[in-house]
């Protein structure tokens, strides 16, 4: 096993991302979240504004958690507490020619304090500021109406699309508030997708059968060199093991699988590490996704002097305007990682993110049955009864 290099966010747990200024929309200045943030960041400058700016329109069409702007410099970061005026619950709009997992997004905010060079949000969002939506009563009203309208209809939702689910949890308490709201809804499973090792959400006493604890994982060299500000892989997997021991199902996301020198050995080392921390029965499902990005991302990285060599591989234009690896290399990488995981007893828990049926068959020997076959299968796994005990 190749050990991952030490990395991680600043050590101050009270303000882990060096937030020095907080702008608060007038509409949410009196919110519970604004009070929490002011209490937890007493050294930050607070300013109430009429409107802290619009939320980003549309959707990045990636599968988070995605790294956003880099760690704060001497001047620190800016956090914006906004009143979101759009829908809080939305489908993941996958391209029609690819298999979509049927994930529903609970839109809690935008931006991520970690700095991953492959992150689609770097090109999608037009600001380095971190934004959190503080009008949670509006969110709960919308979710309550949708989830409570027909309790026989099941939902698999998550918050880690426009932002890491837990990176700002120590500051905002957003996830704990959401989990408390969802506790009595038997028809909803929420996935918390993160690169952090934060388990503070468990203090909210959520139901283990209704929360999926999910981590993004990658090869050691990518974690060490391309995920600046993120905890090492060992810390993430240690947190995953603790969550599994508490009865929560664990999900893992190899997304993106990055072509880099020694990638075969690198991903083998990651799979070995997973096997040393988690049992097959701890894991609900694992996604495999190939590197894809908006065309303007490499130019932006190059302008900062941070363009990694993996962008020099051969890419083609995707159906939704993104760039992705040519199919032969894509299939080779996906098949390699899938084969490693299958040898660990995880064959029935693998799925491909945003791939065609042809790639599914080339990698896994099969494609999901029917247009919503993947979504149905993941829903079944998400609601499957967990086996308790070590």
Please give a handful of descriptors for the protein shown.
390 residues; eight-stranded mixed sheet; 12 helices; alpha/beta; five-stranded mixed sheet; single chain
Question: Which helices and strands, and how do they pair?
Answer:
Elements: E1 19-25, H1 32-40, E2 45-49, E3 77-82, E4 89-91, E5 104-106, E6 109-110, E7 115-116, H2 121-124, E8 130-133, H3 136-149, E9 155-158, H4 169-172, H5 174-182, E10 188-194, E11 211-216, H6 220-226, E12 227-228, H7 233-245, E13 249-257, H8 263-277, E14 283-290, E15 292-293, H9 297-303, E16 315-317, E17 323-325, H10 327-342, E18 350-352, H11 357-364, H12 373-383
Helix pairs in contact: 7-8, 8-10, 10-11
Description:
- The chain has 390 residues and is of the alpha/beta class.
- It has a single domain, classed as Alpha-Beta Horseshoe (pyruvate-formate lyase- activating enzyme), CATH 3.80.30.
- It contains 12 helices and 18 strands.
- It has helices spanning 32-40, 121-124, 136-149, 169-172, 174-182, 220-226, 233-245, 263-277, 297-303, 327-342, 357-364, 373-383; strands at residues 19-25, 45-49, 77-82, 89-91, 104-106, 109-110, 115-116, 130-133, 155-158, 188-194, 211-216, 227-228, 249-257, 283-290, 292-293, 315-317, 323-325, 350-352.
- Strands 4-5-9-10-11-13-14-18 form an 8-stranded mixed sheet, sandwiched between helices. Strands 2-1-3-8-6 form a 5-stranded mixed sheet, with helices on one face. The chain has a 3-stranded antiparallel sheet with strand order 15-17-16.
- A hairpin with a 5-residue loop joins strand 16 and strand 17.
- Helix 7 (233-245) packs parallel to helix 8 and helix 8 packs parallel to helix 10.
- Residues 1-11 and 55-74 have low confidence and may be disordered.
């Amino acid at each position: 096993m190749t050990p991952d290099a030490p990395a991680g966010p600043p050590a101050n747990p009270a303000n882990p991302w060096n937030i020095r200024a907080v702008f608060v929309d007038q509409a949410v200045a009196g919110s519970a979240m604004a009070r929490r943030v002011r209490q937890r960041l007493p050294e930050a400058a607070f300013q109430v504004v009429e409107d802290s700016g619009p939320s980003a329109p549309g959707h990045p069409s990636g599968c988070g958690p995605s790294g956003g702007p880099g760690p704060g410099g001497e001047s620190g970061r800016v956090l914006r507490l906004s009143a979101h005026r759009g829908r809080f619950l939305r489908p993941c709009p996958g391209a029609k020619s690819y298999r979509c997992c049927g994930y529903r997004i609970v839109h809690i905010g935008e931006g991520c304090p970690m700095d991953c060079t492959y992150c689609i949000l770097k090109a999608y969002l037009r600001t380095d500021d971190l934004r959190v939506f503080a009008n949670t009563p509006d969110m709960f009203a919308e979710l309550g109406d949708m989830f409570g309208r027909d309790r026989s209809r099941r939902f698999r939702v998550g918050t880690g699309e426009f932002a890491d689910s837990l990176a700002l949890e120590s500051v905002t308490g957003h996830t704990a508030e959401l989990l408390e709201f969802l506790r009595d809804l038997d028809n909803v499973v929420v996935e918390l997708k993160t690169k952090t090792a934060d388990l503070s959400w468990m203090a909210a006493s959520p139901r283990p059968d209704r929360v999926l604890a999910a981590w993004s994982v990658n090869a050691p060299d990518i974690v060490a060199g391309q995920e600046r500000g993120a905890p090492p892989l060992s810390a993430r997997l240690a947190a995953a093991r603790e969550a599994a021991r508490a009865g929560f199902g664990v999900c893992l996301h190899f997304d993106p699988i990055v072509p880099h020198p020694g990638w075969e050995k690198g991903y083998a080392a990651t799979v070995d590490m997973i096997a040393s921390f988690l049992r097959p029965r701890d894991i609900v499902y694992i996604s495999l996704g190939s590197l894809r990005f908006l065309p303007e991302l490499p130019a932006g990285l190059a302008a900062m002097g941070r363009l990694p060599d993996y962008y020099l591989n051969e890419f083609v234009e995707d159906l939704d305007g993104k760039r992705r690896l040519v199919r032969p290399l894509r299939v080779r990488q996906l098949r390699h990682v899938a084969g490693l995981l299958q040898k660990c007893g995880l064959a029935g828990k693998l799925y491909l993110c945003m791939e065609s049926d042809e790639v599914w068959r080339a990698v896994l020997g099969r494609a999901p049955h029917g247009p919503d076959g993947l979504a149905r299968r993941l829903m079944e796994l998400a609601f499957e009864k967990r086996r308790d005990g070590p």
